[in-house]
Amino acid sequence: MSDSAAPMNLLLVEDEDEFRQLAAQWLSKRGHTVREARNGQEALKELERRHFDVVVCDMNMPGISGLEVLERMKSSGSEAEVIILTGQATVENAVEAMKLGALDYLTKPFPLAELERRCRLADERSRLQRENRNLRTLIQREQRPLKIVGESPVMQTVFRLIERVGRSNKAVLIQGESGTGKELVARGLQAASPRADKPFVTINCAALPETLVESELFGHEKGAFTGALSAKTGLFEVADGGTLFIDEIGELPPALQPKLLRVLEDGSLRRLGSHQERKVDVRILAATNRNMEQEVQAGRFREDLYYRINVFSLVLPPLRERKGDIPLLVRSILGEGWDIDPDAMAAVESYRWPGNIRQLINALERAKILADTNVVEVDDLPGEVVSRTAASVAKSDSGKGGSGSNGAGVDAPLLSMDGRGIALGTVSAKVPAEDTLEAKEREHILEILRRERGNKAKAARILGIHRRKLYRLLDRLQIDSGEF
Questions:
Q1: 153-315 and 320-401 have identical folds
Q2: Could you read off the pLDDT of 394-413 as tens digits, one per residue?
Q3: Could you report the per-residue pLDDT of 86-135, keeping only the tens digit for each?
Q4: Which long-range contacts (CB under 8 A, 24 or more apart) does 264-271 make?
Q5: CATH superfamily placement of domain 153-315
Q6: pTM for the complete prediction?
Q7: What residue segments make up the domains of the chain, in order of their start?
């Protein structure tokens, strides 16, 4: 059913019983959910209990008038559109109703088909306003996603699962270590789904204090807690019709787990501080780096909720298990116009990347900032990547050539001066520990700095490198200014 033909949730407030009952019966037969109120007091009670798309309210009623109901609705932050009915139409009444926030005005008598048409227009206006508000929220939260990259067999399996599972409307639990690209996979599932053109909303349970998670997910009403100066739409409502990606769902506070379970069961939720029931249609994608079966056994996560979010399970491999994808990932992250030195690529491929793709992205973005040209070199990489790689090579080669108490058999990179600055070469030799690359670099740079009395600009010119690169070398080699 299209949005224009979707059933509406209506409240009909009218003190004339015969007309109210006739209108409610006719609208119900048209497929709409209709609640009746005989006066303003009943109307306000209904508005406290439920959320309505449109309220049709008679202006002149004993006790609380229709205009007073309208005024109280708007002051409480109600999002329902209001159509005022009256048998005594005047320009003054119409102007007063519109000033108080009514959308439309109908004079009795009128055909019931016309009432439905006016309600439909009011509902469409309300939907457009919600979509615009939700779009602004999404724009504020949205970040440019990277593309999922990989040619390894394990990633090809992941791609096939994304294509197949994406077409379903069921919940998916994405598991894997931190930094393996779980959100990218969630976006891939969204893109492969019938909801591809609908909102994709994300929340990270581990990034928010426990007290804020409920407000973010379900929203709150004005005055619900200290600092709630206005009503706020929750992310479930923002994602209505689309997908909500809950990252680190294992961190979801136990008190909120029953509330999430209820939304998954029937789409019902209540804002914090509200008694109104709201309905949403949202697909849940969840992610975790925890072993959720162990979390369930330990009593930290509800078993019934676990089965609800784990209709399908998709496990992402760590980067160390898909080393063949690293060159492709590097090219994708660096982007057009950038290249990487073969020695730097070798260092990147040799490193274990405990932080997975996220760590690789951060390392290469940092390298691009530090690089003197559009080519990433070894010196541009973080120290742990270079030193860990050198240590791995030394350990591997020592196993082949043996080692004595004073050194190891390695292909040791050495420093030389060729008039253009520092050049790296290699010699196969059994070298003492103090003659390794870092020791030679350190000794040579200190010698230049001492000779130039600590003048880094002159030292950089003599070394044939940019001053920024000299600062990076000082940092990596842990050379303190007190040494020169």
A1: no
A2: 444 444 443 333 333 333 23
A3: 876 666 777 778 788 888 888 888 899 999 999 998 988 887 777 766 66
A4: 264/171, 264/305, 264/308, 264/309, 265/308, 269/218, 269/234, 269/236, 270/218, 271/218, 271/219, 271/220, 271/221, 271/224, 271/231, 271/232, 271/234
A5: P-loop containing nucleotide triphosphate hydrolases (3.40.50.300)
A6: 0.59
A7: 3-128, 153-315, 320-401, 411-484
